[in-house]
Amino acid sequence: MEREKAKAVLEAILFAMGDSVGIDSLATVIEEDRQTTKGIIEEMAKEYDAGDRGIGLVMLDDAVQMCTKGELYEYLIKIAKVPKKFILTDTLLETLSIIAYKQPVTRLEIERVRGVSCDHAVNKLLEYDLITEVGRMDAPGRPLLFGTTEQFLRSFGVRSLEDLPELNAVQIEEFKQQAESEVQMQLDI
């Protein structure tokens, strides 16, 4: 398939799907290999970024999604319903970071790190589609395992989990001390 036709096909698919589409699936449709398809997508992304376009492409792990450019949000809300905003409290952020860095992880493992119950936080993160159940652990009781979603990647502006910042020993020790002080406050109540 000629390159311009391939771009048109990819654009139509991404527009119609409205959600992320795997690069392998796109490669199959345009009958190209994975690397060629990624090259075409990267070229399209540059074209969208270079012009005064209202849309762009977002790369997420091994998928791509067409989306509205963030700087145009103020115009969108004038005509569309205001999307439901969620508030990430410190507790939710702590729980989410544990899941992001240790996934797949069980509730019990999250609670061991935090030192307190995490039922509410996990339920809220599931509701916000930032985490999902990724399976069950092969252990007694078969506890659920949790991991992050593509929505997590979109929300935090990272392409893949490898793009998350690395934690150093000082940060880990600070997190540990914060968790211990939380536990102590809970015990004092």
The major β-sheet equals: 3 strands, antiparallel
The CATH architecture of the largest domain comes to Orthogonal Bundle
Tally of alpha and pi helices: 9
**The level-1 CATH class of the largest domain:** Mainly Alpha
Oligomer: single chain
Spatial strand sequence of the major β-sheet: 1-3-2
Helix-strand pattern, N to C? HEHHEEHHHHEEHH
List unreliable stretches of 5+ residues. Answer: none
Net shape: elongated
CATH topology-level name of the largest domain: Arc Repressor Mutant, subunit A
Q: What's the overall average pLDDT, rounded?
A: 84
Q: Any descriptors?
A:
189 residues, Arc Repressor Mutant, subunit A, two-stranded antiparallel sheet, 9 helices, 55% helix
Structure description:
The chain has 2 domains: 3-70, Arc Repressor Mutant, subunit A; 90-188, Orthogonal Bundle (Arc Repressor Mutant, subunit A), CATH 1.10.10.10. It is 55% helix and 13% strand. The longest helix is centred in the C-terminal third of the chain and has 20 residues, at 169-188. With 189 residues, it is an alpha+beta fold. Helix 2 crosses helix 3 and helix 5 (90-102) packs across helix 7 (119-127). The chain has a 3-stranded antiparallel sheet with strand order 1-3-2. The protein is built from 9 helices and 5 strands.
